[in-house]
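In keeping with the milestone schedule agreed at the kick-off meeting, the structural modelling team has produced records for the first pair of proteins. Each record is given below as a sequence line and a structure-token line. The laboratory manager (R.T.) confirmed that both were archived under the project's standard naming scheme.
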Amino acid sequence: MKPLTILFITIFICSPLLLRAQPDTVKYSYCELIGTARLFSNKVTIDIDFGEAKNVWLDNRVRDEQTGKVRIFNSMVDALNYMGSDGWEFVQAYVVTVGQQNVYHWLLKKRRRESK
């Protein structure tokens, strides 16, 4: 009788440890919006860096899907709204000054779709 009581007490004490599930980890993809001011304009040209290997000759500016022309944004916030409509979320921003020109860097993240 005593071993049976000890067994039930042990199961009762250990059951919360056994039932605790591992927390789900959320996976994110990141990209960086790089905005440079256009010459003699108040609009911004946006490059997107997804962290992939770059070809020196490849142009990675945002293009209109229908016309193929480089998309010109009114501001960095306009570009953020464009990316936000595709599910990207703002993480961090910083500015680097090159010569007399400010180059804006905005880091974005997006939840990955996990296939099971």
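The second protein of the pair:
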Amino acid sequence: MSKKTRNFEHESLQDSQGITGYLNAITEGFNKGELVFTDDDEEIRLTPEGLANIKIKVTHTKNSQSLSIKLNWSSSERSENEESPLFIEAKKRSGKKKSK
């Protein structure tokens, strides 16, 4: 069984309006339950649900400032092996108990 990791990266210079547009689209995607990232070469869909971990890192030096936001959550996508449900059944033990 092989699991394929897909990555999407985009980097560009944006003004405040462009940045807030991206952040608003991410917020809307979380509210709707699906985020779709596309560019000329690729597309990737994420389906956030349940609890998500958020990590915010801010750096401020004399010459630069940065803000990093990282979000992660468990995926609800099933692998091939998870398609079959698991059944667990408790049964009474057969046979006689040993007498002392």
